[in-house]
Amino acid sequence: MHIRKFTIDSDEQVVVKVLREVLDLYRISVANEDIAFDEIAVRNKTTEGNPLHVCTEAVFVGADGTMMRRSTEDIAREGENPRSERHRLIKLNFYKLLREELSLPEAPWGILYGVRPSKIVHRWLDAGLSRVDIMERLRKDYGVGEDKAALLVDSSIYQRPFLGQSDSRTVSIYAGIPFCPSRCLYCSFPAFVLPGEKMLRRFTEVFFRDLVAVREAVAQYGFRVQNIYVGGGTPTSLPDDVFDEVLRTLHESFASDGLVEFCVEAGRPDSMTPTKLQSMVRYQVNRVSANPQTMQARTLQRIGRRHEPEEIIRMYNDFRAAGIPCVNMDVIIGLPGEDARDVEDTMEKIADLAPDDVTLHALALKKGSRLKENLSETELPDDETAREMFTVAMDYTKRMGLTPYYLYRQGYQSGQLENVGCCRPGAESMYNIQIMGERQTILGIGGAATSKIVSPTQKYLKTSFNPKEITVYLDKVDEYIAKRARLLQEVYGK
User: What is the pTM of this model?
Assistant: First the structure.
């Protein structure tokens, strides 16, 4: 739907942002052609007090000049941050007005925005709210659909015993290898096609300098490493000898009796070799992520993968034969040219393999991806089809005996959906639970790695981002090592 003008009675950045997020929910954009409305104008009035009160009025000016004025109001929740509540109510009120005036359906996640919605649920669980109370608040305060609210609450409750296995000195290590054999159509990650020997040698020298600094910090603060996650990029795109050196150094530096998970992303069969598999076994990698994304040969070719579905099956069987305890497989829902029948075929092939964990990703149109840049040339499923595809995939995970245990969301996802991990009992990824919960310090090493340093009270966290651009990381790594050290001192040095 197009409107010629969108007017807000405030230039406050957050207010503008949350109102435009509601327009984005329903694909309402500002344009000069094929307009449904000449203007939508929004005005908000906040009455301070206890509780705070917000009234929102929207004026809809039709293409023919007719005018309709609608308003709604609501009050803030007691005990919540007044500023956050004001912004929530402004957004919720506008969402209600749009739905009422334009007869729009309920958005699956309502106005709930952000990558980690489970953090809200955990805060409410900490406060003693019951499942029923939390479901009601998600429905009333954020307009979340019944099914999505249940998925979010139940997966969050599932996580509670695992989050309880960590204390203020328990940390995880993330090692970022920002290289891939080739760049996929949908990818916006800061990853690069594997460079030549000279650049690769320089990267490994810098990477190990970064690693030594983290190893020293672990010793200095008496941290216990719970998880090591080697991601990217595609870590297995490294040459065999370099890959072996990375795993060996990580194992020697951080593996101890308290290590729960040592995971390697090995998503591409065109990057795996028998030697790399031997290295994984040698250094006690106990989890691998084999990411087919789809088992449709034509789609693999379309998205820039240089392998066939049969090679994915071979790689999976190699992992099993080598005795890797846990194998995860990722699937992307909403890939170009696919429909529900393709997803059903993909999931049937994956179910035959019986992985321990399946993560379903709704395709996200990411800025910087080739897909986003060439969107007009690409045939993507519409929202309704994407939701049908997701339902098919989730039904298969249930048949496989897998339970949803973590989820997260990204911007511009197909069908306004989510990414959800489902596993058999005992195959939960501790690292994924921790990274989404943001209740544990995670120390990042390598290109584009992020360190999230959580205070012992869990009341705040500080972040340090290694550069996405590989040359900046190589040239300025010492500056980023120093910044991470300062933040650690601020949080743990007291």
Answer: 0.94
